[in-house]
Amino acid sequence: MEDSNGAAAATRSRRPHVALLPTPGIGHLIPMAELTKLLVARHGFSVTIITLAISASTAQATLLSSLPHSVSSLALAPVPLHDLPPDANIETTMAVAIVRSLPGLRDALSRLRSSDNLVAFVADIFGTDAFDVSRELGVPPYLFFPTNLLTLSLLLHLPELDATTSCEYRDLPAPLRLPGCFPIPGPDLLQPIQDRSNDAYRWVLHQARRSWEAEGILANTFDAMEPEAANILQQTVPGRPPVYLVGPLTQSGKNEADEGAECLRWLDRQPKGSVLFVSFGSGGTLSMAQMAELALGLELSGQRFLWVVKSPSDGGDASEAYFTVQSKEDPFRFLPAGFVDRTREVGLLVPSWAPQAAVLNHAATGGFLSHCGWNSTLESVKAGVPMVAWPLFAEQRQNAAMLAEGSRIALRLPRAEQGIVSREDVARVVKELMEGEEGKAAHQRVAELREASARCLEEGGAAYTALDAVANKWKATN
Predict the structure, then answer these.
(1) What confidence score (pLDDT) does residue 4 get?
(2) 468 belongs to the catalytic site
(3) Is 28 a catalytic residue?
(4) Which Gene Ontology MF annotations are present (predicted)?
């Protein structure tokens, strides 16, 4: 008689199984983890999430351990990265780490193919080189795209843009107009493509070319955010992978530890819609000088605020904490003298981390000063909270431009002079969001998008239907 473990293994082996390879970084893992929950709960899949050694962190371990029993994870062995230059940026580091991990990935997928009904392999944007391994083993490769359609359109058009443009993109004489997308000025385009002589640019271009090889692209967005781009990218184009809008996928589920957080109790005592939430995401940091101007600008605005304070970046690199998702021991010591005491009645400072989704969904929260990372943007939209856009790196500048001028749910700070946004500009834009006419318009628009995002995720909604189409295609794979 087969024991219970054997029966469970047999049941798992009959289920359709999907392997996912997220790009390093907790912000990339979160939406892929949400995707796995839907595949398990709604479609009966089992899933393996494969991670790289470079992405190991307490936050990642906590997230992986919270997933359903039908979701397993395995970490590939560390690969040498010591030969990369000290100033190698995150795009180069991630791409090289994945390429050097391909032998380990091949072994892992081979074992899964032998033990499970492996029907699909899904890689995040910097994992397209893994398509070779997937196809070699007869497993269809798909691309999970964790951000918006503007960035996806840029990626798909980048090979053509590279071939037809001689100057740096920041020097383009007019904003870049991609089909159905809000025109983006050259300086606001994706940060790693701003210097075409840099390794980061070559890697992004490489991923852009390989993204066309996917069997399909699952994008974490929804049509109301970018309706014209959604219409164009969902059309059938020979040679281009079909695009499935499966978002907004954001972290879900209540956490008892979150509910007991001091900042939520503080919010309970604040008037409805009166608090500006300030956070730069899991990996974003400011310079010490900029941190001081932000503090003094919040004070000058006179608005209530809840600020997740992180230690400043030592060398001014805003992505310095990307892989570690950690702050130094006491970030408050970097704040201007007297600031904490002077703002005690109107502000709350939280070191390093806060339960962001719970904060955004609290009735007292009326605005979000954000780095415009896509996870944070979708969480803000789903909570119906408008933003002050303060982009730092990656695709955040073009996100900020699109959210301010396209979707009109954010107010954008002026471009920093000498790299520093002044306290006066911080105060003016924060006050406008919380009290002004532009802020009211942004509130109204984000409320409309909140309703649209909820409809997408309901049974019969666009995201629900799109994921059904992908899942049914995978189930038909043998």
Answers:
(1) 40
(2) no
(3) yes
(4) UDP-glucosyltransferase activity
